[in-house]
């Protein structure tokens, strides 16, 4: 334990209540931070006293005795635009003892210059310093760098300048809080000025709008059972925030803390870290946001560049096993071998591809056997045979693991006697009496002996045939205040716990099995979690429309925090009743999200148990996902290379478009797909806000002018899905799973559109298994290009920069089938790689106006197709009705009530809107009036009275407005 932890420990215990964060099943959420105390008053850093510039490090001493260091960490590299600066604050004047960062991959600044492509470069020029009586000005002149560092002397304030523009400037600057251990929390912090119009993103997993501006947010991981939309604090709270102005801030401290993002002072961003004796933050820099310069599709990429810088610091996600992008079926839980194998067979027989099955705590015998790490023999008598059978069918077995060891576990005595668990103040094993499953100990993930013992358990099970892992309860869910670990007290290690746990698996796995990719489903983590192959999910979500509505902003917030695979328990986990429409809408969204994993308890989460038409709708969307796997896998590759999330907020590619700055019910899946889930019950039409450029309907190819809001049809069987005009989508034939899918044909959908002359997309391919594929160049990188010259349409599948050398089991030859919708006439002639192509190679369907061309590709060879005489259909003058929806009637809070309930609504166009309450006979019993003065989401409350203020009788009633209806049951 570090020395300063030992000094603080007795004082912490003086004020500690021994209550734990009790999270029992169905018991409701605990406090956001049950041990948080008021903040102590702020003490300023003081004024400048002296400075030294040594190499590229500027060190400043202040009149309070504090030290501040500012240094560039890396500059843009070849093919990489982000840069980073580090600021260290030592209130005592010198660094206090500190463990190495749990978040950083790049622990030292880059010092060697390389001309090869890479993530960041050294800064080769020596900084220049200008000094006046009032300030210091330092320009490190990085390669392509944009920033100067301006230091105001009195009071000491630091600004980072991008040319004449102030990119980031201190408001109150750096400060400390002196702890009063009886009443107040000490630590260190910093505040910055905010531009009045900038938007703030990231901060991890929160059921809040994607723009976090105006909120005060806690940095303390918690488990909120059955949470719904609006919950500000969940399982993974991350100390990183991105600005729409082209910068990000990463605070490399895992202490509990807060982000005040303009809540207390509208134009001030404040970070507070509890108990900090050092404060370290990184300024991550991208280019300035700017609108396109004459092209509808090309804008600056500040979000991308900031995420590149962040993941250069903290690490990118290793390539996933390809099967992880398939359907992973889960529930709480499969109790026997027969049930586990049976669901895999039933899904396959029902026409559902499936790649994984997840076993909850019944695999080891249930709640009282947590910590056993051994199969429950009566119900799983031959698990190795079961896993072999599943694996031969292309289905991986994923096992749950928890950090608690029950007092009833067979390993209880072992972990206690070896000191593998958290301890009390006297150094004795600490029993968590209030854990929801019963008394248990909590493993010390920071202790080397614990880490070794846990890896031995995981490795033994892996050798038996386990294909992936599920780490649950890792916030930790229940962690008494007065526990002690090798890393410190509960308060000091809480946020780092899940990270330490994940690193046990990832570090040992890649050391022993360097060629095998890892899949780790984890509920909690910290900054840098992505480099441990963590595929997080959003926690124990309420099975409700409100719970579902939270999932898009949670997914996008995590993506802008460097974690690209956030997903949900598709269909909802708990509490809510069976709702086939909700399940269908949720699965439509999840099929077009980073990970597809239906999971739940109380209501079947498997689509095969739903009646028609719901089952067929879900099947179609699951199969759509599998057909898009080449596109999704390419996005996974991009995430590994650049940190780009798979699912992106609408302004990711269009950062200057204010219409897109805070959209929470639509998103981009990669660059080329726009997904607009239906998140309200009964909704059959919804508004979609389109970025600039031209877009096309995925199914028909019909072009739609961008830069506007359209009303899109959304029948139960479909959600709006649009494609960027000109996109070339690589697709595949659907098989029973990802490993057994046919590889003899690559399909490419080209969404041609008038006015889009040239376009380019990407395709990445490898064997889907080898963790060394990139390092060994065992892959193919392709560029898909389309060029419409006016007389000829040229379609190319060509090698990209660093194309790779091929991969195991790469097809020796395959068909590349090009699919082009909205073609007015078949080609009159065609060539393939410069040679005439017979007309039998293409098929033109005059009824659907669709052209398909089959071309042959030899392994590793380019495909260059030229079509003459192809004419595209002009944009129709008679378009489908795309008038925007003016008013949306949303979900009812309580669908059955005896005293009253609330109904959501959203005003899109200001106006007067009445919501009528009708009985089952269609008679109006009450008229409610919505606030339509300005756009926004609001609620109306009905007290179950009629217009005469009389209680209505029991029965079925409906809220109705603008042709929309929501059902409610009144009980008496």
UniProtKB/TrEMBL annotation:
GO MF annotations, alphabetized: carbohydrate binding; hydrolase activity, hydrolyzing O-glycosyl compounds
Boundaries of every Glycosyl hydrolase family 31 C-terminal domain copy: 643-728
InterPro entries: FlgD/Vpr_Ig-like, Gal_mutarotase_sf_dom, GH, Glyco_hydro_31_C, Glyco_hydro_31_N_dom, Glyco_hydro_31_TIM, Glyco_hydro_b, Glycosyl_Hydrolase_31
GO biological process assignments: carbohydrate metabolic process
UniProt key word Transport: no
Region feature (Disordered): 23-43
Positions of the Glycoside hydrolase family 31 N-terminal domain: 89-260
Alphabetical UniProt keywords: Glycosidase, Hydrolase, Signal
N-terminal signal peptide: 1-22
Listed Gene3D superfamilies: 2.60.40.4070, Glycosidases (3.20.20.80), glycosyl hydrolase (family 31) (2.60.40.1760), Golgi alpha-mannosidase II (2.60.40.1180)
Domain Glycoside hydrolase family 31 TIM barrel span(s) in chain numbering: 318-635
Domain FlgD/Vpr Ig-like: 912-965
Entry-linked PANTHER family: HYDROLASE, PUTATIVE (AFU_ORTHOLOGUE AFUA_1G03140)-RELATED, MALTASE-GLUCOAMYLASE
Family: Belongs to the glycosyl hydrolase 31 family.
Entry protein name: Glycosyl hydrolase
Organism: Solirubrum puertoriconensis
Taxonomic lineage from the root: Bacteria, Pseudomonadati, Bacteroidota, Cytophagia, Cytophagales
């Amino acid at each position: 334990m570090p020395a300063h932890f030992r000094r603080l420990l007795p004082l912490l215990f003086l004020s500690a209540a021994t209550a734990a964060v009790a999270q029992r099943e169905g018991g409701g959420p605990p406090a956001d931070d049950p041990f948080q105390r008021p903040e102590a008053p702020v003490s300023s850093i003081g004024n400048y006293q002296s400075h030294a510039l040594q190499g590229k490090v500027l060190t400043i001493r202040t009149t309070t005795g504090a030290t501040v260091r500012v240094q560039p960490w890396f500059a843009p590299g070849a093919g990489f635009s982000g840069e980073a600066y580090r600021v260290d604050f030592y209130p005592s004047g010198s660094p206090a003892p500190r463990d190495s960062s749990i978040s950083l991959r790049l622990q030292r600044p880059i010092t060697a210059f390389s001309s090869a492509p890479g993530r960041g470069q050294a800064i080769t020029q020596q900084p220049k310093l200008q000094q006046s009586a009032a300030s210091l000005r330092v320009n490190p002149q990085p390669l392509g760098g944009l920033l100067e560092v301006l230091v105001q002397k009195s009071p000491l304030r630091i600004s980072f300048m991008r040319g004449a523009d102030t990119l980031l400037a201190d408001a109150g600057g750096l400060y400390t809080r002196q702890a009063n251990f009886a009443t107040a929390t000490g630590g260190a912090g910093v505040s910055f000025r905010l531009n009045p119009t900038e938007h703030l993103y990231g901060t991890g997993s929160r059921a809040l709008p994607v723009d976090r501006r105006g909120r005060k947010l806690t940095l303390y991981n918690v488990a909120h059972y059955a949470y719904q939309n609006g919950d500000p604090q969940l399982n993974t709270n991350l100390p990183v925030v991105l600005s729409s102005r082209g910068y990000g801030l990463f605070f490399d401290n895992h202490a509990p803390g807060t982000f005040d993002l303009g809540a207390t002072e509208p134009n001030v961003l404040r970070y507070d870290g509890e108990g900090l004796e050092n404060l370290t933050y990184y300024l991550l820099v991208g280019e300035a946001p700017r609108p396109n310069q004459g092209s509808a599709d090309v804008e600056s990429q500040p979000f991308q560049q900031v995420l590149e810088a962040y993941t250069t610091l903290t690490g990118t996600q290793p390539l996933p096993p390809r099967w992880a992008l398939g359907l992973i079926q889960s529930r709480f839980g499969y109790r026997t071998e027969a049930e586990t194998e049976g669901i895999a067979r039933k899904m396959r027989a029902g026409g559902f591809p499936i790649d994984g099955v997840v076993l909850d705590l019944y695999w080891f015998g249930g709640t009282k056997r947590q910590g056993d790490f051994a199969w429950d023999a009566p119900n799983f008598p031959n698990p190795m045979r079961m896993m072999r059978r599943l694996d031969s069918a292309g289905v991986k077995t994923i096992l749950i693991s928890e950090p608690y060891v029950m007092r009833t576990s067979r390993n209880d005595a072992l972990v206690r006697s070896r000191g593998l668990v958290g301890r009390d103040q006297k150094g004795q094993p600490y029993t968590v009496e209030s854990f929801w499953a019963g008394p248990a100990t909590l493993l010390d993930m920071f202790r080397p002996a614990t880490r070794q013992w846990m890896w031995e358990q995981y490795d033994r099970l892996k050798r038996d045939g386990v294909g992936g892992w599920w780490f649950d309860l890792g916030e930790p869910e229940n962690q008494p205040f007065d526990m002690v670990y090798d890393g410190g007290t509960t308060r000091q290690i809480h946020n780092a716990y899940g990270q330490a746990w994940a690193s046990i698996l990832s570090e040992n796995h890649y050391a022993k099995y360097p060629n095998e990719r890892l899949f780790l489903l984890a509920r909690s983590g910290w900054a840098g979690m992505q480099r441990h192959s963590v595929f997080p999910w959003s926690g124990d979500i309420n099975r409700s429309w409100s719970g579902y509505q939270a999932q898009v902003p949670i997914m996008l917030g995590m993506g802008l925090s460097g974690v690209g695979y956030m997903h949900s328990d598709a269909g909802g986990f708990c509490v809510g009743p069976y709702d086939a429409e909700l399940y269908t809408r949720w699965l439509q969204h999840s099929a077009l999200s980073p990970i597809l994993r239906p999971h739940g308890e109380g209501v079947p989460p498997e689509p095969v148990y739903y009646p028609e038409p719901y089952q067929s709708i879900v099947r179609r969307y699951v199969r759509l996902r599998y057909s898009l796997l080449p596109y999704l896998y390419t996005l996974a590759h991009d995430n590994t290379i650049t940190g780009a999330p798979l699912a992106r907020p609408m302004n990711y590619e269009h950062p200057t478009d204010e219409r897109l700055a805070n959209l929470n019910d639509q998103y981009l899946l990669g660059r080329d797909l726009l997904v607009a889930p239906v998140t309200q019950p009964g909704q059959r039409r919804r508004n979609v806000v389109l970025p600039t450029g031209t877009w096309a309907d995925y199914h028909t190819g019909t072009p739609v002018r961008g830069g506007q809001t359209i009303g899109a049809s959304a029948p139960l069987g479909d959600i709006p899905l649009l494609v960027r005009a000109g996109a070339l989508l690589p697709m595949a034939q659907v098989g029973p799973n990802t490993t057994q899918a046919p590889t003899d044909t690559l399909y490419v959908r080209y969404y041609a559109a008038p006015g889009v002359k040239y376009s380019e997309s990407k395709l990445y391919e490898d064997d889907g298994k080898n963790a060394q594929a990139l390092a060994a160049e065992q892959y193919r990188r392709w560029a898909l290009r389309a060029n419409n010259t006016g007389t000829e349409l040229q379609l190319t599948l060509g090698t990209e920069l660093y194309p790779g050398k091929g991969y195991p089991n790469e097809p020796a030859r395959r068909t590349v089938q090009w699919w082009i919708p909205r073609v007015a006439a078949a080609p009159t002639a065609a060539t393939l790689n410069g040679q005439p192509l017979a007309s039998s190679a293409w098929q033109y369907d005059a009824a659907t106006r669709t052209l398909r061309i089959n071309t042959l590709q030899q392994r590793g060879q380019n495909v260059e197709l030229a079509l003459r005489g192809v004419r595209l259909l002009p944009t129709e003058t008679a378009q489908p009705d795309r008038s925007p929806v003016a008013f949306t009637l949303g979900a009812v809070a309580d669908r059955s009530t005896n005293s009253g309930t609330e109904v959501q609504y959203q005003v899109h166009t200001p106006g007067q809107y009445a919501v009528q309450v009708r009985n089952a006979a269609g008679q109006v019993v009450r008229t409610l009036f919505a606030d339509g003065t300005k756009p926004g989401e609001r609620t109306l409350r009905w007290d179950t009275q009629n217009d005469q203020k009389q209680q209505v009788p029991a029965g079925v009633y409906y809220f109705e407005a603008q042709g929309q209806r929501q059902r409610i049951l009144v009980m008496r």
